[in-house]
Amino acid sequence: MKYIRKSADRGKANFGWLDSKHSFSFGNYYDKKHMGVSVLRVINDDMVMPGKGFGEHGHRDMEIISYVIEGALQHEDSTGNSYKVPAGDVQRMSAGRGVMHSEFNASKKDKVKFLQIWIQPNITGIKPSYQQKSIRQKGQLTSLVNPNGDNGALSINQDASLSRLVLKKGEDITFNTKQRIGYLHIIKGQLKANTEQFSAGDGFAVEAEQVLEINAHSGVEALWFDLPIV
After folding, report:
1. 101 with 130: CB under 8 angstroms?
2. Which SS3 state, helix, strand or coil, does residue 120 take?
3. Which of 97, 100, 114, 203 could, after both became Cys, cross-link 78 (CB 3.0–4.6 A)?
4. Considering just the CA atoms, what is the radius of gyration of the chain in Å?
């Protein structure tokens, strides 16, 4: 694997109400070596203080996924959606030709921790849309988002898929990327991927035709991105 992104090396932003770590260039953090992988443009690891959040702001032509790890996120947008997204739920908003939205910590006493993920779409100027689901884990790898919303997943306007990987200590899994690019972001736990050691907050890309062997050194929760070669 040629691209490894360690947690401690990520970009950082702390505004008091928000403590954020950026896997790729975002906002005031810019590094030309870390601009994303394939169509994956943003992974922000956000912790929002009680009762605080992102005020109304706009997006256009981006697939935005929120994966809530702890607490609950309140979402509102200009298309009339108003939803609470609790831990374990996955949310997808297609910004399309333009949408205004806000995201707040739904609690006045507890923090909310979530991953904000941006994927570049393969079609632009479409009508904005929104989906949210609680998707139960089925085995080690469970599809959360895929192009057609197959197997109970959310849909996305891109030839890309997102799955949740859950392993118990000592369990193994093997990926073969074939004519694709893979990216793994670790949420919890420690693992070995081929000969490298990784822990929570770390990420790495897997090149086309690479075989990836993972062994969990503890209980692991991670996100696996299956991405096109661009």
Report:
1. no
2. coil
3. 100
4. 17
Helices and strands (H, E) in the chain, number of each type: 0, 22
Number of alpha carbons in the 13 Å side-chain half-sphere of residue 32: 0
Q: Are 41 and 64 in contact (CB under 8 A)?
A: no
Distance between alpha carbon 67 and the CA centroid of its chain, in Å? 6
pTM of the model: 0.95
Task: Compute the distance between CA of residue 175 and CA of residue 32 in angstroms, rounded to an integer.
Answer: 28
Q: Which residue type does 190 have?
A: Q
Q: Which residues of the chain have pLDDT under 70?
A: none
8 Å CB contact between 111 and 49: yes
The two beta strands, 154-155 and 141-146, are parallel
The reported pLDDT for the residue numbered 26 is: 96
Residues 70 and 105: beta-carbon distance below 8 Å: no
**Residue 165 near residue 221, CB atoms below 8 Å:** yes
Alpha-carbon span 112 to 116, nearest angstrom? 12
